[in-house]
UniProtKB/TrEMBL annotation:
<dbReference type="InterPro" id="IPR014186">
    <property type="entry name" value="S-formylglutathione_hydrol"/>
</dbReference>
<comment type="function">
    <text>Serine hydrolase involved in the detoxification of formaldehyde.</text>
</comment>
<dbReference type="InterPro" id="IPR029058">
    <property type="entry name" value="AB_hydrolase_fold"/>
</dbReference>
<keyword id="KW-0719">Serine esterase</keyword>
<dbReference type="GO" id="GO:0046294">
    <property type="term" value="P:formaldehyde catabolic process"/>
</dbReference>
<dbReference type="GO" id="GO:0052689">
    <property type="term" value="F:carboxylic ester hydrolase activity"/>
</dbReference>
<dbReference type="GO" id="GO:0005829">
    <property type="term" value="C:cytosol"/>
</dbReference>
<dbReference type="InterPro" id="IPR000801">
    <property type="entry name" value="Esterase-like"/>
</dbReference>
<keyword id="KW-0963">Cytoplasm</keyword>
<protein>
    <recommendedName>
        <fullName>S-formylglutathione hydrolase</fullName>
        <ecNumber>3.1.2.12</ecNumber>
    </recommendedName>
</protein>
<dbReference type="GO" id="GO:0018738">
    <property type="term" value="F:S-formylglutathione hydrolase activity"/>
</dbReference>
<dbReference type="Pfam" id="PF00756">
    <property type="entry name" value="Esterase"/>
</dbReference>
<comment type="similarity">
    <text>Belongs to the esterase D family.</text>
</comment>
<keyword id="KW-0378">Hydrolase</keyword>
Length: 299
């Protein structure tokens, strides 16, 4: 891993990193925010700082949320680090949307492992985000014998739109092993198999066989994952979101959990007047931060 830039932000630092990924076979960029606790001289040696992973939406790089979601203030308040991965592999040799649209291909990897050519060689974003990246960050930041940051055990996941889908999908797929201790989402695509953005992405990356799509679709996954403890998935969506009716459809997740162990454990807060932008995301980041801080045992 190479540090590209270190920027002072709030009480800590935003570290811009890049590395050669084994999963995507490309160079990947990732931003990490280290909160003020990381730099505090009196931070207890026997404690590790947990992380919140934020998966971004269509067209984003690691910079969109780093610059516009204002997670850094919350990370300092509660004492967690933030990880902002990229949304796809990139580069001249990486296949892109044949139509040149922004809802598929580079900037739109959908956090799945593609099985179809020409996408399969590089679009392995599920393995990248949920397996390779935590290990790589662990080796980079904790490789000096001082294990101060926790990228693999006490970890929460959240995301926006395509990234909200990626967060819920990763949370549910890793639920039995408690991979993530907490999950939330901003304006997520909850049922990709049944909406145009998801159908285009799953068709392209996973092929026409729709049974293959179920392995990533939150509305299918949640029916086969046994809910435990007081776990809850927190979702916000704006009622003025232009993508709400066609692509997001949060009510489909509420329908999917009816009569399952998750009934009453998925909370969708529809907020009046908010759209899909980072004005919406940043408004509700404090509530999501408090939710994750509680679930990570920080408060
Ligand atoms: N670029 C698209 C919009 C795509 C979009 O809204 N992307 C969301 C995630 S799904 C986003 O976060 N965009 C980047 C930003 O707002 O900074 C357009 O031209 O309409």
């Amino acid at each position: 891993m190479k540090v590209v830039k270190e920027l002072s932000a709030c009480g800590g630092k935003l570290i811009k990193l890049s590395h050669d990924s084994i999963s995507t076979k490309t160079r990947m960029n990732v931003n990490v925010y280290l909160p003020k606790q990381y730099y505090a001289q009196d931070f207890p040696r026997d404690r590790r700082i947990p992380t919140v992973v934020y998966l971004s939406g269509l067209t984003c790089t690691p910079d969109n949320a780093s610059e516009k979601a204002f997670w850094q203030f919350q990370a300092d308040k509660y004492g967690f680090a933030m990880v902002f991965p990229d949304t796809s592999p990139r580069g001249d040799k990486v296949a892109n949307d044949p139509e040149g649209s922004w809802d598929f291909g580079q900037g739109a990897g959908f956090y799945v492992n593609a099985t179809q050519d020409p996408y399969a060689p590089h679009y392995q974003m599920y393995d990248y985000v949920h397996k390779e990246l935590p290990q790589t960050l662990d080796a980079h930041f904790n490789g000096n014998g001082v294990a101060k940051l926790d990228f693999q055990d006490d970890v929460a996941i959240t995301g926006h739109s395509m990234g909200g889908f990626g967060a819920i999908c990763g949370y549910l797929k890793g639920y039995a092993e408690r991979k993530y201790k907490s999950c939330s989402a901003f304006a997520p695509i909850v049922n990709p198999s049944n909406v145009p953005w998801g159908q285009k992405a799953f068709g392209g990356y996973l092929g026409d066989e729709r049974t293959q799509w179920q392995a990533y679709d939150p509305c299918a996954l949640i029916k086969n994952v046994k809910h435990v403890n007081d776990d809850k998935i927190l979702i916000h969506v704006g009622d003025a979101d232009p993508f709400l009716e066609e692509h997001l459809k949060p009510e489909l997740l509420l329908e999917a959990v009816k009569a399952t162990s998750w009934e009453d454990h998925v909370q969708v807060k529809k907020v009046h007047g908010f759209d899909h932008s980072y004005y919406f995301v940043s408004t509700f980041v404090p509530e999501h931060a408090e939710f994750h801080a509680k679930n990570l045992g920080l408060i």
